[in-house]
Amino acid sequence: MDQSLNVFVTVAEKKNFSRAAEDLHMTQPAVSQYIRSLEETMDVRLLERTNKYVRLTKAGEIVYHHAKEIVGLYGRMHHLVNDLSHEASGKLSIGASYTFGEYVLPHILARLLVDYPRIQPEVTIGNTAEIADQIMSRQLDVGIVEGRFKENRTLTSQDFAEDRMIIVASSDHPLAVRTKMIEWKELADLTWIIREEGSGTREAVESVFERFSITPSRTMQFSSTQPIKEAVEAGLGVSLLSEWAVQKEIRYGDLVQLSVKGFPFVRQFSIVTSSPYQTKALQVFLELLLNNHELTLVRGKE
Questions:
Q1: Distance between CA 21 and CA 279 in Å, rounded?
Q2: Which of 68, 90, 49, 96 minimizes the C-alpha distance to 9?
Q3: Which pTM does this prediction carry?
Q4: Contact 211, 236 (CB under 8 A)
Q5: What 8-state DSSP symbol labels residue 216?
Q6: How does residue 79 score in pLDDT terms, banded at 50, 70 and 90?
Q7: What does the DSSP 8-state code read for residue 64?
Q8: Strands annotated E in 187-242
Q9: Which of 259, 235, 236, 243 is nearest to 171 (CA)?
Q10: Where are the beta strands (DSSP E) in the chain?
Q11: Percent of the chain having pLDDT more than 70?
Q12: In a 3-state reduction of DSSP, which class is residue 11?
């Protein structure tokens, strides 16, 4: 691989020649020479440089996008060849949507590293749409999501576990002490605390609203699950969340599950990949995910 591409990607991400040189274990003049060489090859300026900043030009943004993918593919190629004669090891780039990434994945990785301590997991947490995009651009080896994403022939998706979703409220909420089933018209009059567009959890709550033909009188939006739990606990409203995400709060009495007809709502966790070639590290990780017994153990631990 042309080293100038790797140098260019590093400079673009560090936004500074001296920090890039330090990261690459090079001198700053050497880094500058690589950038000049790449710009001469492309016959266009890729970076705007001043004493205060380094930033990409329009052409630089295009080159960065493709160079990032090339550098990633080159690294994966080396891992695949190395795997032919060595045990599972090396970097494993995992993307996960918030529910799985924050509440399930840490337990799975703990088990993985007991048997394969030389694997180096790197985890990216984002909403379903963001993870799917990074899988497609080869920035991640594998993604675990809980919602639908934009279909693309380069992506492969496989359901592997159920995610049960429940409606929760503060333990002080008037509906928390109800013993009979709560009517949906009562829930329509409440404030709903929901996730942002592109989130699998947002997709689920919209499906529930459509299924039961309700339009909440008011909604409040947060970009991750933890502040939603805090908002519900504070009495700001109710929310639809994964059982994985609220097990501790329900056990300790901070949140309660409301008795609502038609619940729990069940969706699927899915594994998303983009390449038919898999490193040994990815193979053993997928084997662990596909063993539903492992997920049952995680649920039982909480």
A1: 30
A2: 68
A3: 0.64
A4: no
A5: -
A6: low
A7: H
A8: 191-194, 218-221, 239-242
A9: 235
A10: 47-49, 54-56, 90-96, 119-125, 142-145, 156-170, 191-194, 218-221, 239-242, 255-257, 265-273
A11: 91
A12: helix
Per-residue pLDDT of 261-270, as tens digits, reads: 888 888 888 9
End-to-end alpha-carbon separation of the chain, Å?
46
Q: Are 275 and 196 in contact (CB under 8 A)?
A: no
Contact 239, 218 (CB under 8 A): no
Question: Residue 261 corresponds to which tokens in the numbers above?
Answer: 């007809």
Distances (CA, A) of 128 to 44, 180, 208, 220: 36, 35, 18, 20
Mean pLDDT for 215-222 is 92
Integer angstrom CA distances of residue 266 from 163, 166, 181, 245: 6, 9, 19, 14
- Residue 148 tokens read as 């639908």
pLDDT of residue 71: 81
Q: Are 192 and 205 in contact (CB under 8 A)?
A: yes
Amino acid code (one letter) for 228:
I
CA distances from 138 to 39, 58, 275 (A): 24, 22, 8
| Token pair belonging to 5 | 């591409």
Q: Are 124 and 94 in contact (CB under 8 A)?
A: yes
217, two tokens: 């009188």
